[in-house]
Structure formats: structure tokens, C-alpha cells
Amino acid sequence: MTHLISLIGVPTDIGAGARGASMGPEALRVAGLAQVLESHGIEVADRGNLAGPANPWQPPVDGYRHLPEVVAWNTTLHEAVHAELALGRMPIVLGGDHCLGLGSISAVARHCREAGKKLRVLWLDAHADYNTATLTPSGNIHGMPVALLCGHGPAALTGIGGTSPAIDASVVREIGIRSVDAGEKRLVHEAGLEVFDMRYIDEMGMRHTMEQALKGIDGNTHLHVSFDVDFLDPEIAPGVGTTVPGGPTYREAQLCMEMIADTNRLASLDVMELNPALDVKNRTALLAVDLIESLFGKSTLMRKTSPRS
Q1: The domain made up of 4-295 is a member of CATH 3.10.20.30
Q2: Residue ranges per domain, the chain?
Q3: Is 228 annotated in the active site?
Q4: DSSP for 254-307, written as a single string
Q5: The pTM of the whole model exceeds 0.70
Q6: Segment 115-163, tens digit of pLDDT
Q7: Is 127 a catalytic residue?
Q8: Which terms are listed as keywords in the entry (predicted)?
């Protein structure tokens, strides 16, 4: 795992149904993200914020809201993430809404193709984000990035990075899902997407869930985590525009992050959908930073050996 980290702020809510995620990058900075990472001996370079078109707040056109603007933001992000990976650095994308997973993950997939690495994507989210324009009346593209990455949608979006589809559904593990539309569920099943929903986590526990989601990761695997803050239960993380009750608790989320850290394969990260306009005293940003710290070595483990063998 690289210990050279680049923070990339992407201040836009272009794909969302509520305004405010554009302020997410600054909230994460205010919550001390760079300082917390540096306390673990990691060199952090804050690249500042990317620039892109303003949010025109228009209704959907042909089923997609703000398509040209979404393309512009994701193309810029794709190039920024790819450039950091080419330098041997770990990009942490500070969102912004989750439509940005398209630019970020398409860049990671491109890097893996060039470097001959296997890709594994952990999608931590309350939503499957596997919608298409025919399935969602809102046209909000933050509900579509996984489907777009897998090739479902207009070429302007599915072709970012020059390869369509950017990824195969088999590389994705979705965790924490608890809000899926009926048509979307059908598409997810057809794609063969591996989903560990909250029912699974309730029945099997977070430890078993993560063992399954991380199975098969080896020394040649690039592990990308796309962390939508609405993954967390809104009782502990109110600062998101798409809250769904019944998410992972603080302890479950900590275990999830610590088990990812244990693999030592994390190579890129998205932190998405943090909405300070809906938060209480930056509480959700502080929690997100706390959990990100667990991805980079803060551990509650006191014993010398793990019982997971």
C-alpha cells in the first residue's frame, strides 16, 4: 500500500437531487482529514479542488439531468485520478455527489489495465446505484454510476476513459445496500452483481460479510473503496441528502474499515455524498474522517494475533 496520498476535492452536486454535496470537500478538510492521515506517518498532498461547470438545476433531458455537466466533471476527475496513480500515489477523492464514482473508478480501471493489475471495487452505500434513465423518473445521475461503469447508458458517460464498459460487474462488491428500486433490482440480478445488503449483514454479521467481499484479493489486486456516507445509519451520520434508516452502526462500520486496512491492498478511495448543509456541527464529516483513519491504520485491536485464520 502506498503511503503517498493526494487529496482531490470535487465540489459539485451536479448528479444529486439535493443541493449541498458541493461543500463536502471543505467539510472534510475542516474535520482534519489531512492532519489525521499525517499523524500516521503518511505524506499527504492536498491538490485543492477541481473546477467544472456550475449546477444549472434543470429537469432531466431524455432521462438524464445535467448530462453535459456530469460528463465535464467526470472527465476532469478521470484525468486527475489517473495522473495521481501514474505518479505512484493514492488518490482520495473528496466528493461531491456519487455520480463522480464514474470518473474516479474508470480512471482506476484504466490504470489497472495499463499496470496489469486485478481490480476489486468495494461500493459502500445504502443504494445499489444501478439505475438507468428508463428506470428512474428523477434522472439524477448519482443513482446510476455503477450501471454506467458497467456499460449501461449513453456513450458520453460509459466511454469516459476510452473503454466501454469501464469495468465488469464481477469486480464490484456492494455493501450496506437497503434501498433498491424494483427495476433496478432486476438489472442488478441480470448483471450478476455481488450485493451484501443489510439483511445479509444482519444475518451473517459484518465480519463474515467483509471476509466474503474481500475474498480472492491478492498481492496483484488494486483495491478501490467508494464510500458513500449514506452507507452509515443516519442516526450517526445525518449529513447526507439520501438518508435511509437501518444502516451499519459505528462499530460495524469500524470493523468494515479495519478489515479493509488488514488487506494492505487499499490503493484508491472515494468519499462521497457528504452534505454539510444537512449536517449537525460537521458531525458526519468528523465521523467520516474517523472511519477513513481506520482505513489507514487506526485499529481498536489490542491482541497481537487475529482470530480470523
Answers
A1: no
A2: 4-295
A3: yes
A4: HHHHHHHHHHT-EEEEEEE---GGG-STTHHHHHHHHHHHHHTT-----SSS-T
A5: yes
A6: 999 999 999 999 999 999 999 889 999 999 999 999 999 999 999 989 9
A7: yes
A8: Arginine metabolism, Hydrolase, Manganese, Metal-binding
